[in-house]
């Protein structure tokens, strides 16, 4: 019997019969190794066996076979106070009727497998697996409280074919949280859950009104900054629309060539090499409408090259006049309307020159997550990303040289403690670490 008990490695349970097994399952008959000594109510040791019952407890698989424990559970009665109670077993989770180690295994497996696969492998219902995972995520939500960003980024990330809300720490280049959708109510709810949200000074975002409304509702003191990359990208889109409109008057060969060389138009002029500059001049000299649209694009980019807010506004006013009097004004109408509607938030950029500079990181994460995400639920993917401690960027404790020196000098090192102000901080999921893990498929 001892060998069979060793096979289970559960110190508070012992096997009372040889195990039964078939091709996929094993069943052990077990009972408590040690009976209770004292009454949990009054503490006296005058106990006797009252009744018993059989209880099925699921345990970790052995040799890839599902394991069930048929527990002969005994009930005791106290001769002193009359209290009746079932024997308590530290290895059993009473709520789930399974061993605690099986629950830990289900929690871990749920981060890398579908709920159906986990349920099938351990011999429990899929709903049970889903509920265990839900409880696990709730525990992790309380356990991991990332430091509130001073500069909060609001963006979106496409996971499992849907846009999801992603909150970032712009300063630390980390993911603060991911939520299942980007609806206004979802954003409001999540911002409201940040206890010290008064610490947030700036919020960067694209021109999505629900984001702005949510920020103004929950943290009205924070300055909204429209990410400049969303703005200048519209200038490129306007220029590209002009290029497409010119195809009707081109030969098929010219159209294909311009399509192939469109990157030259979208690049900044000062970034072109000698060959590309020559090609650009050739196209612009032969296509006056394209030249006009291209010059508007370059003039718009110049707005963001200045370090001075007032100069930037002057350049925008000049650009706006040029645009309205040009033949390309229809191509740029969406950009004009966007800047007119979001002017304050767009020019808030010049306060700190904040951008969602992690946009390319987000795109890389999207590609990798979509590749690995087949068969996963959103909740599982989110947990794999947010609660993986290996991905977290942490602040080391600040060194308090004065307190440390005194502790060393006066032999009080054992009483030397790090103050709350000096303790480690957790900024969230580091972009670069997450991307490396995803690329290696070992998240």
Automatic annotation (TrEMBL):
Domain called Transposase IS204/IS1001/IS1096/IS1165 zinc-finger: residue spans: 36-81
Domain Transposase IS204/IS1001/IS1096/IS1165 helix-turn-helix: 92-137
Domain of life where this protein originates: Bacteria
Pfam families, alphabetized: DDE_Tnp_ISL3, HTH_Tnp_ISL3, Zn_ribbon_ISL3
InterPro entries assigned to the protein according to its UniProt record, in alphabetical order: Transpos_ISL3, Transposase_DDE, Transposase_HTH, Transposase_Znf
Ranges of residues in domain Transposase IS204/IS1001/IS1096/IS1165 DDE: 152-385
NCBIfam families tied to this protein: transpos_ISL3
Protein name per UniProt: Transposase
Originating organism: Oceanotoga teriensis
């Amino acid at each position: 019997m001892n060998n069979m008990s060793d096979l289970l490695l559960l110190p508070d349970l012992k096997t009372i019969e040889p195990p039964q097994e078939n091709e996929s399952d094993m069943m052990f008959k077990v009972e408590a190794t040690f009976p209770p000594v004292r009454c949990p109510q009054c503490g006296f040791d005058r106990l006797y066996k009252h009744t018993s019952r059989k209880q099925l407890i699921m345990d970790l698989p052995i040799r890839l076979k599902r394991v069930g424990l048929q527990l002969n559970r005994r009930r005791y009665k106290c001769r002193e106070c009359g209290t009746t109670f079932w024997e308590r077993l530290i290895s059993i989770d009473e709520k789930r009727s399974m061993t605690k180690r099986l629950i830990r295994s289900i929690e871990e497996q749920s981060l890398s497998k579908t709920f159906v696969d986990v349920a099938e492998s351990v011999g429990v219902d899929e709903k049970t697996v889903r509920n265990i995972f839900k409880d696990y995520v709730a525990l992790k939500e309380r356990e991991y409280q990332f430091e509130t960003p001073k500069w909060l980024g609001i963006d979106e990330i496409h996971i499992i074919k849907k846009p999801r809300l992603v909150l970032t720490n712009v300063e630390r280049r980390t993911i603060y949280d991911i939520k299942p959708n980007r609806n206004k109510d979802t954003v409001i709810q999540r911002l409201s859950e940040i206890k010290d949200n008064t610490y947030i000074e700036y919020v960067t975002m694209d021109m999505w009104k629900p984001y702005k409304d949510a920020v103004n509702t929950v943290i009205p003191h924070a300055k909204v900054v429209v990410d400049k990359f969303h703005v200048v990208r519209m200038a490129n889109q306007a220029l590209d629309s002009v290029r497409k409109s010119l195809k009707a008057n081109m030969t098929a060969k010219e159209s294909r060539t311009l399509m192939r060389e469109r990157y030259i138009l979208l690049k900044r002029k000062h970034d072109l090499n000698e060959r590309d500059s020559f090609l650009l001049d050739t196209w612009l000299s032969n296509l006056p409408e394209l030249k006009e649209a291209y010059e508007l694009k370059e003039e718009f980019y110049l707005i963001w090259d200045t370090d001075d807010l007032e100069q930037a506004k002057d350049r925008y006013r000049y650009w706006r006049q040029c645009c309205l009097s040009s033949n390309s004004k229809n191509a740029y109408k969406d950009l004009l309307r966007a800047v007119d509607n979001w002017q304050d938030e767009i020019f808030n950029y010049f306060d700190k020159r904040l951008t969602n500079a992690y946009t390319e990181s987000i795109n890389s994460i999207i590609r990798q997550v979509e590749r690995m995400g087949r068969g996963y639920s959103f909740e599982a993917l989110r947990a794999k990303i947010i609660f993986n401690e290996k991905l977290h960027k942490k602040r080391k404790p600040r060194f308090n040289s004065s307190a440390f020196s005194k502790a060393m000098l006066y032999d009080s090192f054992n009483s030397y403690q790090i103050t709350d102000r000096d303790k480690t901080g957790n900024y969230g999921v580091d972009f670069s670490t997450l991307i490396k893990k995803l690329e290696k498929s070992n998240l």
